[in-house]
Amino acid sequence: MHPLDDIKPRWERRKDARPQELLAAALDLFVERGFASTRLEDVAKRAGVSKGTLYLYFTNKEELFKAVVRDNIVPVIGAAEEIIAGFDGHSADLLRKVIIEWWQMMGESEASGISKLIMAEAGNFPDIACFYQDEVITRGTNMIASMLNRAVARGEFRPMDVTTVTQVLIAPMMMLMTWKHSVGPCEKSQLDPIAFLDAFLDMALHGLLLPPAPPA
Amino acid sequence: MHPLDDIKPRWERRKDARPQELLAAALDLFVERGFASTRLEDVAKRAGVSKGTLYLYFTNKEELFKAVVRDNIVPVIGAAEEIIAGFDGHSADLLRKVIIEWWQMMGESEASGISKLIMAEAGNFPDIACFYQDEVITRGTNMIASMLNRAVARGEFRPMDVTTVTQVLIAPMMMLMTWKHSVGPCEKSQLDPIAFLDAFLDMALHGLLLPPAPPA
Amino acid sequence: MHPLDDIKPRWERRKDARPQELLAAALDLFVERGFASTRLEDVAKRAGVSKGTLYLYFTNKEELFKAVVRDNIVPVIGAAEEIIAGFDGHSADLLRKVIIEWWQMMGESEASGISKLIMAEAGNFPDIACFYQDEVITRGTNMIASMLNRAVARGEFRPMDVTTVTQVLIAPMMMLMTWKHSVGPCEKSQLDPIAFLDAFLDMALHGLLLPPAPPA
Amino acid sequence: MHPLDDIKPRWERRKDARPQELLAAALDLFVERGFASTRLEDVAKRAGVSKGTLYLYFTNKEELFKAVVRDNIVPVIGAAEEIIAGFDGHSADLLRKVIIEWWQMMGESEASGISKLIMAEAGNFPDIACFYQDEVITRGTNMIASMLNRAVARGEFRPMDVTTVTQVLIAPMMMLMTWKHSVGPCEKSQLDPIAFLDAFLDMALHGLLLPPAPPA
DNA sequence: TATGAATGAGCTTTCATTCAT
DNA sequence: GATGAATGAAAGCTCATTCAT
């Protein structure tokens, strides 16, 4: 296709872009202030539109919130799943890679705010919490579990209760996200995420790795 | 002091009790609905007083919230510290005991709601978040760190970077509290806290324990 | 009871009076502007209170509207029924009296606005319309019908289809109320209610009266 | 003019049709929901055009409303007047015919909704009310009055106060229209328009007819 | 002409806070 | 101290109206 074929009048391009601009603005404010304290007028203003425009794209505040969650969760999950699919080395390296890259993608971006958001607002939006459970926790859990099964099958990790170990491996990631958006900003709070994850991985691998067969 | 000196007419004792009744009611509702969605009228009603009375004891909603947090954090910390002080066995047993009992006291009681509350509202109350950091996280961290130092000193755990390992040991506890008050109530969410903690402790101790010195 | 026993502090008396003050204000404005065009702030202002106060007594605009209707309909019906109960003369005089007094009580007061209100808003409040049908139309119809039955029983009116004649007798009353609140205020509109009712009654009685028995 | 001169390309003919389609849609919705509750977007949608198009033909909502009223009133009046002009029998039959046919044309069609509309919204549109008074009530009144004068002149009805009797004859028609669009739809509401009009006419003619001259 | 995205004034409703009693 | 009626700012949401295309 000729590159110019895609050019649309500025005005119409905006129409297509609007929902994304609004979702981006809403993500920022929801993460920063929480659901209740975010005023829709501020979301609109940050997106450069008026209050009424927001309602052309989202039925109400709750639907906007849900859209923000959905819009930011799906890509994160997909990305993480791809990392695993294409890996072909030792499972210990894979685990390290997945967890460290997860933090770089999710934790260091604003996406981590989504998780914190869900933790915080779950009580007021049970369906969102369950949606998150299904779409993120379950898929993420399956992803980690598949790594562990692979490792055991390849004789790289000891046999184990995969389900529970999976939950154990997820814990530090949840902690990092929660920490980042709560006490993290406090002066006295001192936590180096990468060092923390390294230490955790060292400890975990120590317990998971099958010791090399002793020389005969 | 003569025991009867402490006796006051009932209505005066009630005066002292009022704030506690209000704090208890507020704790329940804040945990259940979050800060913004909790109406002071409901707090007052649950405490059996009128809305106006609430303002005799707390300047405004924000101060009530802070009082709730402070009131519920202090005892939790103290209780955890006492567990350690009086223990005299192997450090591995101590670690197990502290973590399991912590969950039974904190996690299974409403006190865990306080932590969730702080995570959720930290953005709106930075000073509360820092207060929590100072009074809970730091003290809790010191507590765990002292256990680790004791263990290393007694030749029970390997030498280690105590600060980071401490943070690693805290992670599953934070995860449990967050989980309990967010996706925990979802149908599909399946997590047995005790089994989870056991698995974590197994893995951790595996990495921490100094292998017994080989016979010469 | 001693007359002074009833005296309450001004402030508390107001509390009891509030709903009535609000209903009166709402009646005025609803009749004048219709349901949708009436702003609750104006209702409150006319009652001398703030917007919020209104919500202490009525759940929302719709409930206020329903309360206005109920509050103004019941007494009207009762009053009309009493007129009949205590009458003891010729049925023709009773019919005249009931209809003329009805206009003086209902039509010339603001209560007639209620009927107009219901006609106007019936589409938006089907339950109100039915409530009106049950409480006013049906009761009013029964009232008129009982007069006609009495008249026939006493040999004063000819035998007739009471149900339909009743509806015929109601028509001019409905017309007057509708007229008063619609085209009545126009310059060119010329209708003298009493003359109109007189003419109608003359015509009706002409058709209803049993001619005196011819001398044998 | 040559018959083909009138042929226009379809799109241009549509241009003329637009206002009619819009007026028809607006009539439906105004009658169904009242002025305030009718959204212009719905009117446009029902007419199959966009919201903006509506504003090409009508300055604003109020003007659309007025156009709807005017557009639907004129033909009604004209039709009723024609009935009389061409009649040549007894005045009693004429009166019956006019009133019954009026209900069949006006009452049973959507046109009756216009009258109800005016009754309901008169307060917000005094000029509409007066327009209705002038164009409908006055003309209708004159029409009925002319029938009565004809009847008296022909010695068919007694001499009477034509003005007031006219108003009396109009009452049941107003009642029927009001009833149809307010409490009519209620379950309990039972009114057979034709039976009602028949009963009214019987009663009225009883009072109006000149008794046949006694045989000499 | 026709469109429909965008606007923003305006309204209902909520609730933290005040204060006369 | 205790009450609860009253307040009014604030926020969500609607919809008549405009205007660039």
Q: What is the CATH T-level topology of the domain at 72-207 in chain A?
A: Tetracycline Repressor, domain 2
Helix amount of chain A, in percent?
Answer: over 70%
Number of helices of chain A: 9
Estimated share of beta-strand residues of chain A = under 5%
Number of strands of chain A: 0
Using the coordinates above, name the CATH class of the domain at 72-207 in chain A: Mainly Alpha
Could you say what the CATH architecture of the domain at 72-207 in chain A is? Orthogonal Bundle
Keywords (chains A, B, C, D): DNA-binding, Transcription, Transcription regulation
DNA-binding region (chains A, B, C, D): 39-58
Domain HTH tetR-type (chains A, B, C, D): 16-76
GO molecular function, one term (chains A, B, C, D): DNA-binding transcription factor activity
Would you kindly provide a written description of the structure presented here, covering whatever features stand out?
The structure is a homotetramer of 216-residue chains. The first copy, chain A, has 216 residues and is mostly helical. Chain A has a domain at 72-207: Tetracycline Repressor, domain 2 (Orthogonal Bundle), CATH 1.10.357. Chain A is 74% helix and 0% strand. Chain A has 9 helices and no strands. The first copy, chain A, has helices at residues 10-37, 40-47, 51-57, 61-85, 91-107, 111-121, 126-153, 162-180, 193-208. In chain A, helix 1 crosses helix 4 (61-85), helix 1 (10-37) crosses helix 6 (111-121) and helix 4 (61-85) runs antiparallel to helix 5. Mean pLDDT of chain A is 86; it is low at 1-13. Chain A binds a DNA duplex (21 and 21 nucleotides) through helix 1 and helix 3.
